[in-house]
């Protein structure tokens, strides 16, 4: 949080069919439907999240990610970062308060990787869903499906990794927590964090700009990951891979697809990062193990299927 | 139950029996065949693109970045969103697990 950026705040995803998407994200993942707007966008969140929403779904004729937003500590930080982003060479767009329902003004920019990111300081806080703020119980009754606790991070495929790293570390105050280096020492994957998590956003080198690999949601335990796997089978949801463990970040994980082909992950556990920690390095000759620690084999679908 | 529709994938010569209401890709996976590469199974990633050679199909929603209106008119479609209405023939566009150069160009 060196530059006042606190955490991932929201992700807007495009879906081909809103009804099918809501069945997936609400009934299967267990996100809470919080609101809708006059553009037809639907606002969701995990039950532990304090802010009103963290996932926005928009119906469109191609799936993928519209943008990923990070919350900053205050409006002064937003003003300062707007100038620093412009000085870095980003075109900064201003979106007024209320353009996302319940969210304050946002600034939007495109990273060298080709992805759109946003910063905002204010969002309506509705508190954890189903538990009171005073003397809160352990968890709420009535959660659905996987009972995803929060939107956690996403993995993006794109170009210009070095410039993107410079933007996120120098301007936005992220740290490089983990990386994959090829045999020439070139970084082909970078996992960035703005707090203690192993990643808040990650990038993998890819010839095309701005592609989306997955959005990830946090579960409490390995038992919950196995239960998610059961639900994926029960609902005939398109499975990608898992349950398994990653070498990178050591998270325990399962991957699957939403009905529009956007990849989702639910995971638990994993490494932590402090700003004084050197990056954890995996070498590309061990990439199979780095990605799926048990299989230890490169999985072509996991590497190439994107929206 | 009516008999399954027989779909010939011309590149491999494999025949996939597709139950009414089932997608071509799901039927292929159910029968353990691999003549069409499998991606997201949701019309989003473009990996399972095929060219329709003959026969009639219902289409589900597909990403316009992989099959636009013009390509659809030329008979291109994603097998995960193709529901055969009778016996038919298709050609897989790519190698299993890899997008064709055509697909990469379309989506860039």
UniProtKB/TrEMBL annotation, chain A:
GO terms for molecular function: catechol 2,3-dioxygenase activity; ferrous iron binding. PROSITE patterns: EXTRADIOL_DIOXYGENAS (PS00082), VOC (PS51819). Its cofactor is Fe(2+). Keywords: Aromatic hydrocarbons catabolism, Dioxygenase, Iron, Metal-binding, Oxidoreductase, Repeat. It comes from the Bacteria. Its EC number is 1.13.11.2. It catalyses: catechol + O2 = (2Z,4E)-2-hydroxy-6-oxohexa-2,4-dienoate + H(+). SUPFAM superfamilies: Glyoxalase/Bleomycin resistance protein/Dihydroxybiphenyl dioxygenase. Residues 7-122, 150-269 form the VOC domain. It is an enzyme of class 1 (oxidoreductase). Pfam families: Diox-like_N (PF22247), Glyoxalase (PF00903). The keyword Transcription does not apply. Belongs to the extradiol ring-cleavage dioxygenase family. Homotetramer. This is Metapyrocatechase. It comes from Azotobacter beijerinckii.
């Amino acid at each position: 949080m060196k530059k006042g950026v606190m955490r991932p705040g929201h992700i807007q995803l495009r879906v081909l069919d809103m009804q099918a998407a809501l069945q997936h994200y609400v009934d299967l993942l267990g996100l809470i439907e919080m609101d809708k707007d006059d553009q037809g966008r639907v606002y969701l969140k995990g039950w532990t999240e304090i802010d009103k929403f963290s996932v926005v779904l928009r119906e469109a004729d191609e799936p993928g990610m519209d943008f990923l937003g990070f919350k900053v500590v205050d409006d002064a930080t937003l003003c300062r970062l707007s100038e620093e982003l412009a000085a870095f060479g980003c075109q900064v767009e201003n979106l007024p308060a209320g353009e996302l329902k319940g969210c304050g003004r946002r600034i939007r920019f495109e990273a060298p990787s080709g992805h759109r990111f946003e910063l905002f300081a204010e969002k309506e806080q509705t508190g954890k869903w189903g538990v009171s703020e005073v003397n809160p119980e352990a968890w709420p009754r009535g959660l659905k499906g996987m009972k995803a606790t929060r939107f956690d991070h996403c993995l993006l495929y794109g170009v210009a990794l070095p410039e993107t790293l410079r933007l996120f570390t120098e301007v936005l105050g992220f740290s490089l927590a983990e990386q994959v280096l090829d045999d020439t020492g070139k970084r082909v994957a970078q996992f960035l964090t703005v707090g203690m998590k192993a990643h808040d956003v990650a990038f993998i080198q890819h010839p095309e700009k701005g592609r989306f690999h997955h959005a990830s949601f946090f579960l409490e335990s390995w038992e919950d990951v196995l239960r998610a796997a059961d639900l994926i089978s029960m609902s005939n949801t398109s499975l990608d891979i898992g349950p398994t463990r990653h070498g990178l970040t050591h998270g325990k994980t399962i991957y699957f697809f939403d009905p529009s082909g956007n990849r989702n992950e639910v995971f638990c556990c994993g490494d932590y990062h402090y700003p004084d920690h050197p990056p954890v390095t995996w070498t590309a000759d061990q990439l199979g193990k780095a990605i799926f620690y048990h299989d230890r084999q490169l999985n072509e679908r996991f590497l190439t299927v994107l929206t | 139950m009516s008999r399954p529709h027989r779909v010939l994938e011309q590149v491999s010569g494999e025949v996939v029996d597709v139950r009414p209401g089932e997608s071509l890709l799901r039927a292929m996976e159910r029968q353990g065949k691999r003549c069409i590469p499998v991606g997201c199974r949701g019309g989003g990633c473009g990996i399972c693109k095929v060219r329709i050679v003959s026969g009639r199909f219902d289409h589900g929603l597909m990403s316009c970045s992989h099959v636009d209106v013009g390509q659809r008119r030329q008979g291109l479609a994603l097998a995960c969103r193709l529901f055969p209405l009778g016996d038919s023939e298709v050609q897989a566009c790519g190698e299993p697990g890899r997008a064709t150069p055509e697909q990469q160009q379309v989506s860039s």
